Amino acid sequence: MAKVKVATVWLEGCSGCHMSFLDIDEAIIDLAKVIEFARSPITDIKEFVPVDVGIVEGSVGNTEEEEVLKELRAHCKILMAWGDCACFGGICAMRSTFDKEEVLRRGYIETESTYKGKIPCPPGVPALLDQVKPANHVVKVDCYVPGCPPESKAILYALNELLAGRIPVLPSDMMRFD
After folding, report:
1. What is the value of pTM for the model shown?
2. DSSP codes of every residue in 114-137
3. pLDDT single digits (tens) 94-134
């Protein structure tokens, strides 16, 4: 039987969701028998190829992240959002309560330790979006694993549901955080 192809991306966030994935410990050995990572920050593969499952961690705060998410969606059959940033905007979306230019000015010019500050705009640096967005404000998301970060058992449950051919809906006991 062919392995299920999976691609993951880490956008604006802390990488905690991918760390929770790694926290499934020895269960990762069984997953490796049935999953092939076609793109992932864990493998450092950067190109997109058609995959069965796409996984997004992090919110969308700049033009490059927006394009990466659109490209992931275009290359996957099912898209899963991991963590509060991808599901709801998370901590990163706190920037959305401020004007983008105010944030840049404060960060690069007005901080107490800044000397002769200026807002950088070198070529190749993606432009900030006016608002930080959860993944579903940019593309269609098929399933969600919330949490900051999600518990490893919730990630494993969701992956096993997908492998069984079901769109995961987390049980209520996995939606509580102790």
Report:
1. 0.92
2. -SS------TTPPPEEEEEE-GGG
3. 999 999 999 999 999 999 998 888 888 888 889 999 999 99
End-to-end CA distance of the chain: 39
Q: Which CATH number applies to 4-96+130-173: 3.20.20.80, 3.40.50.150, 3.40.50.700, 2.10.77.10? A: 3.40.50.700
Stretches in the chain below the pLDDT threshold 50: none
By C-alpha distance, which of 74, 61, 53 is closest to 143? Answer: 53
Please report the pLDDT score of residue 67 as a whole number: 97
Measure Cα distances from 79 to 57, 113, 178 in Å: 11, 42, 27
Measured in degrees and rounded to the nearest 5, phi and psi for residue 115 equal: -120, 120
Share of the chain above pLDDT 70, in %: 98
What is the DSSP code (8-state) at residue 118? -
Measuring CA to CA, which residue among 165, 150, 144, 152 is closest to residue 34?
165
